[in-house]
Amino acid sequence: MHYAPQPGGSLRLARATLSNSCWFLNQLITFLAVGADTEGRFALLRVIGARGTELPPHYHLGEDETLYLLEGELTVRARDQELHLGRGESVSIPRGLEHTLRHDSSEVAFLLQFSPAGFERYFHEMSEPAEYLGRPLDPAPPDQARLMATAARYGCVFTR
Questions:
Q1: Distance of CA 23 to CAs 27, 63, 86, 139, Å?
Q2: Structural domains of the chain ordered from first start
Q3: Global pTM?
């Protein structure tokens, strides 16, 4: 395979700061790259969570999703498949495929990529600014109706 460099562009360093991190439910999310940074090609988030977090079954209409596990253990289910991810493993979830995700260890950290970008705005809208770079100590209970309605505006359909 031959890689041809693209003209223009520049390097962009991203790191966790209070200005690009937020609390979403009981997780710390850091926006490492958003659509405005990548001309809409992809968004890259770092997620830090804890055991017990489980997303209800859902699918995305407009973007593919990739997870790369940095620490801990995750389970991803889709149709009749169940994958248990350990550190250094990844899973790709194509748009339209109903799936769910469960945090299986006391501390979980992973990179979450959406391609193309856009769905990261859901997390931005539904979160609150992080007061420090760790998970919130006492997160408010989720407003399920608002979570589902906002997700639908960004092309994510919860099926239960």
A1: 6, 23, 24, 8
A2: 23-130+147-158 (2.60.120.10)
A3: 0.91
